[in-house]
Design goal:
This protein is of the alpha/beta class. Strand 1 and strand 2 form a beta hairpin. The chain has one domain: 2-enoyl-CoA Hydratase, Chain A, domain 1, CATH 3.90.226.10. It is globular and about 55 Å long. It has twelve helices and ten strands. Helix 6 crosses helix 7. Helix content is 49%, strand content 16%. The longest helix is centred in the last third of the chain and has 19 residues. Bound molecules: coenzyme A. The site of coenzyme A has 17 residues, from helix 2, strand 6 and helix 12.
Amino acid sequence: MTEHLIVADEQATRVITLRRPEKKNALTQGMYRAMSDAIDTAQNNPDIRCLIITGGSGVFTAGNDLDDFLTSGRPSVDTVMASNAVKFLHSLAHNVKPIIAAVDGVAVGMGTTMLFHCDYVLASKTATFSTPFVSLGLVPEGASSLLMPRTMGHQRAFSMLVMGRTMDADEAREAGFVNVVVAPGHTEAEARKAARDICALPAEGVAISRRLLRLPPEDMTRRIDQETHLFAERMRSKEAVAAFKAFFARKKEE
Ligand code: COA
């Protein structure tokens, strides 16, 4: 268990809240594990009809905890493949329940890539989306190399995934991965409304239709594993280690 994640069932909706605001909700292995458990245990629970992932007010998540990356040294590919982060991604790929994301503030790295496994995404006007993998010496993860070009086209995906360009909320809506842009502080309320709408629909019809819309889970897990293999190799690279250290050194230099 971790105090950095709250899971609460509100009628038929399971609300998963990231709560590590002092670190911009950066995702630790414990948080990945708890998110994965919250998703997995909903799968065969007929009382849960919908999931919401939220970062609360003002931030979604700054992505992988870079301190975890640094302190893990140079982990083997097998260690990374067996990590809770990868388990979380597999849980997302196999998830059969509609999943809504409420993004109020920054969504970096995994904070953006996980949205492509969601069915409905709300963003506040101040939300920003970025995947700075390459500048960190890394490569895309989370099946983003498969799902992002599929949603927004190759060129826009390239500008985010390779060039590390940031999108604001309106650009993200235009690119197709945000449904609605709302005022700051309103994403969770709007997510709950969307969840109520989904829960009011015939459950079997929703499940079958959702399955038809999505890629087969095996396609996504295959890509997740390919990416993770390369990502793990890159974590051991001089480029990546230097980038992680530079992030934590930046304040001392200011
Ligand atoms: N991992 C670990 N700690 C992180 C973090 C991360 N991904 N992102 C932020 N933090 C920590 C900071 O070290 C800081 O901790 P401190 O107060 O103990 O020094 C705290 O969260 C607040 O971050 P700060 O950078 O001061 O906030 P900001 O508003 O100026 O900037 C971000 C917010 C998200 C833009 C910036 O923190 C950032 O770029 N983070 C790294 C994002 C990243 O590269 N993620 C990995 C993708 S694979």
